[in-house]
Amino acid sequence: MDILIVMCIGILVGRVSILRRAKKKNEYLSLFCTFILIFSMGVMLGKKDHFFEELSSLGLTSFLFFLIPTVLSIGLVYWLTRVFMKKDK
After folding, report:
1. Is the pLDDT of residue 70 over 90?
2. Alpha-carbon distance 87 to 64, whole Å?
3. Is the dihedral of CA 20, 24, 26, 30 positive or negative?
4. For the residues 22-35, what does the mean pLDDT come to?
5. What residues form the membrane-spanning segments (predicted)?
6. Domain spans of the chain?
7. C-beta neighbour count of 54 within 10 angstroms
8. Does pTM top 0.70 for this prediction?
């Protein structure tokens, strides 16, 4: 629920015309927050005692989390395109 609230606040902030003028500052702030997020994720992973032993299973799991939705999404878009975007001959 918290994520939904944050997303709605982000949408509202993006719609306010006063904040559109501060677009460049907002871009820098977003980049900085992304760097902080990546750094903190690295620190959390680095604190694990058996990180290198778990790395192979983490890599396989994350690869499957990437591969399965990607393949299914491409297949669904391909099928929907063939069904609904037929060319008139």
Report:
1. yes
2. 35
3. positive
4. 82
5. 28-46, 58-80
6. 1-48, 50-89
7. 13
8. no
